[in-house]
Amino acid sequence: MIRDREHECMGRGELGQLQGERLAKQVQRVYERVPFYKDLFDKSGIDPNKIKGLTDLPSLPFTKKVNLHEQYPFGLFATPLSDVVRIHASSGTTGKPTTVGYTQNDIDMWAEVMARSLACCGAGRDDIVQVGYGYGLFTGGLGAHYGAERLGSAVIPISGSNTQRQLMLMEDFGTTVVCCTPSFMLYLYDVAQQIGLDVKNLPLRVGVFGAEPWSEEMRRDIEEKWNIKACDIYGLSEIIGPGVSCECVEAQNGLHINDDHFLPEIIDPDTGEQLPEGELGELVITCLTKETFPLIRYRTGDITRLTTEPCICGRTNARMARVSGRSDDMLIIRGVNVFPSQVESVLLMSPEIEPHYKLVVDRKGSMDTLDVQVEIRPDLYHEVSEAVLSLDDINYFTEHESLIKLKSHIQKNIKDIIGINVKVAFREPGSIERSEGKAQRVVDMRKQG
Ligand code: DLL
Questions:
Q1: 181 close to ligand 1 (CB < 6 Angstrom)
Q2: What confidence tens digit (pLDDT) does each residue in 168-194 have?
Q3: Is 68 in the pocket of ligand 1 (CB under 6 A)?
Q4: Taking every pair of C-alpha atoms in the chain, what is the biggest distance, in angstroms?
Q5: Is 33 in the pocket of ligand 1 (CB under 6 A)?
Q6: Integer CA distances (angstroms), 157 to 116, 130, 165, 191, 429, in order
Q7: 241-269 pLDDT per residue, tens
């Protein structure tokens, strides 16, 4: 169902007009209200009165993550705290978090774009939506919650973790839509297997998965294991939280951006130049309608591409490709740029292995090394374990003929497709740490020494 035909199916020309008007207003507004933007625009020689529409966008300076840290906690707020009704924060890997604020209008707009997104995945009033994203400072739980309520679905606010209880409620309440990270959905499957729950018999029909990079291969794996449609949802705290964009269940081919509120661009991360439609680069977003935390040309660090080609679902908004990773998560292995999700894609081409893996990067002398640890499927594991003398002996385990073949096959695939030599090591089913939120799949020893 298309929730807001007026804005989701608007002609591109008319939408551009609306975006341009909103942009001009927002630029004026932040100039008057946020000292950081007044300084930044003055230093960049920008006269806000001269910003009239979309063609002026490339002349505006970027806002970067470091600016958010410098202005911690409320320096970028464009409204007095008395108008703020909610504060969220995203945990930084180092130091202080990034703080974001919302007025009541911001919360309403967020609920609306989330409702659109859930509808885009095929959810509606009759659905029972289980929100398995964390509630708290993280935007996932409350974002999905308000959106599902606005849509009129029955919401189960279970939050993250609670693995066994998640499964119990899915069964007892008849959950039809689940929202959580894709890695948590895989963990839920493992636990369902352990307790003998046949998930294919659940009434669950749609999963709304995001908050971390995942691949097409992982989508297929989840869809097949759970017998559901798995849709990708994207967002970030700095812009609003989840609901910046979402795939439609009809095409599952690119995420529809709510671009009447969030104006997207793709830039070359090195030069900052805007790239033409279709080219891969860093996503930059301008908040056109946010009141408290309206970022201008925010560099998300996320790598994707845009298209405005019509979609079979009838929506006309711009679509972004699945995010392949963050520019700061990109691994450089002996000069080759590698995203963890690329390795995931290649791994999951082999049906003998499970979608649970860890990438360990190190440096031996002046050589970068990448070790790929991945679990093999339980049935193969048991077959191999029975065939060797000792179940516990790791050498017997890895030296089994079928595993040696599989290993060299995967290593060759990674070399052919990504262009790097890696060492693959198989691990027992269940031995790689599971995630109840965002998965941590990379260990970079180079940064730890
Ligand atoms: O992760 C918001 C969210 C919650 C999105 C629930 C979707 C579902 P942050 O914690 O601020 O916010 O992290 C934002 O996570 O810049 C991306 O790098 C990554 N990310 C979010 N969604 C996706 C996705 C939430 N679908 C950062 N695919 C973003 C790949 C994603 N990466």
A1: no
A2: 999 999 999 999 999 999 999 999 999
A3: no
A4: 79
A5: no
A6: 19, 6, 12, 20, 31
A7: 999 999 999 999 999 999 999 999 999 99
